Amino acid sequence: MTQKIEVILDSKQCQGYGMCLMSEDIFEIPQGSQVAQLKLHMVDLDREDEIKELASACPAQAISFRILETA
Ligand code: SF4
């Protein structure tokens, strides 16, 4: 059993501030868009601190996460 972090982006909340782009392998704002998109939905558990920081850094509180058990 492995644990992974599911990153959740509420695109209705996102205001396009771009703070999340510090993790550029996870988030992107496509050209011409005002809203971030997830490039990666599941990340390794050893990035938990980074994901927590992203969630608290988002001014629109659009980022959340949960830890999932994967087979
Ligand atoms: S930091 Fe939050 S509001 Fe800004 S682009 Fe990322 S998800 Fe959207």
Describe this structure in words.
With about 70 residues, this protein is of the alpha+beta class. It has one domain: Alpha-Beta Plaits (2-Layer Sandwich), CATH 3.30.70.20. About 15% of the residues lie in helices and about 30% in strands. The strands form two sheets. A three-stranded antiparallel sheet has the order 4-1-5, covered by helices on one side. A hairpin with an 8-residue loop joins strand 2 and strand 3. The structure holds iron/sulfur cluster. Iron/sulfur cluster (SF4) binds next to loops.
Helix/strand layout:
Blueprint: E1 2-9, E2 27-28, E3 37-38, E4 42-44, H1 48-57, E5 63-70
Antiparallel strand pairs: 1-4, 1-5, 2-3
The structure holds iron/sulfur cluster.
Pfam families: Fer4_15
Protein name: 4Fe-4S ferredoxin-type domain-containing protein
Organism: Acinetobacter bouvetii DSM 14964 = CIP 107468
| Distinct ligands | iron/sulfur cluster
Q: Strand content of the residues, in percent? A: 25-35%
So what's the CATH class? Answer: Alpha Beta
Q: How are strands sequenced across the largest beta sheet?
A: 4-1-5
In the CATH hierarchy, the third-tier topology is known as Alpha-Beta Plaits
What's the mean pLDDT score?
A: 96
Tally of strands: 5
The class by helix and strand makeup works out as alpha+beta
User: CATH architecture, please?
Assistant: 2-Layer Sandwich
- Annotation field: number of helices: 1
**What Rg do the Cα atoms give?**
12 Å
The proportion of residues forming helix, as a percent range, comes to: 10-25%
Q: Any idea how many domains?
A: 1
The arrangement of helices and strands along the chain is EEEEHE
Spans of at least 5 consecutive residues whose pLDDT stays below 50 are: none
